[in-house]
Amino acid sequence: MATLLIDTTYFLTVGILGRKPFCEESSTDHVEKIAPLAARAMEEAGGKVEKIEVMAGPGPFTGLRAGLAFATGLSLSLAVPLSAGGLLFAEDAWARSEGAKVPVVAVNNARRRQAYFQIFSERGEDLSSIDIASPDKIAQSALALGRPVALAGLAGDYFDKISCAFSEAKVPFTPFLRPAGSARWLESMHESVKERPLPPRPIYLRDADAVPLFAPQGEHPQEILAKNLLWSLN
Q1: Pair 168, 139: CB distance under 8 Å
Q2: In the chain, where are the structural domains located?
Q3: DSSP 8-state symbol, 181
Q4: Model-level pTM?
Q5: What is the CATH number of domain 2-86+181-195?
Q6: Beta partners for 85?
Q7: 65-91 tens-digit pLDDT
Q8: Alpha helices (H) along the chain
């Protein structure tokens, strides 16, 4: 029997533990692609899935909602248990599997020139809580440790900006770019679920990016809220 793992904390990764997963390097079409990828993964396992594990975040609002809603529905339809784990702890586990022996600063893209982050000790203990901040503030948090660190996260512009902020703040660090579509990443996700199981509820650190363009009903229903229109166009 197989374990199906799902990660929609930014890119979409779906796979069977012990096999190479299917991955879509997109953060905008999880809803359309998650079911077909899950079907392909389950076909590889002969349709025999005994449990489902999903990353609860932190990550963008819509991606988390799509992944957790799908995982919940699938677990109910298959009558198999569903467990969740934290993305940043999984990144810490992945960095250590790649040889990191110093504190790990685990990060994930939060858009709006920010990133989700958490710092872990050499033994994987929490040195900070989950937070969201600009690259400069993350660099200052790492600098306060007073020793070299590993920076672990998904490749992208946000990771490059954090790396630049670390360099400018003179934080001694080694980058660990984790691939979304690897069997080892599935193992790290599984370790997060096993070591720190969470309820299958999304870890949101802020509201959705979507904003209403019109005033609420009963006030001026056709009045465009100027500040939200400007935000949506940025």
Answers
A1: yes
A2: 2-86+181-195, 88-177
A3: T
A4: 0.87
A5: 3.30.420.40
A6: 55
A7: 999 999 999 999 999 999 999 999 999
A8: 30-44, 61-78, 87-97, 135-143, 157-168, 183-195, 226-233
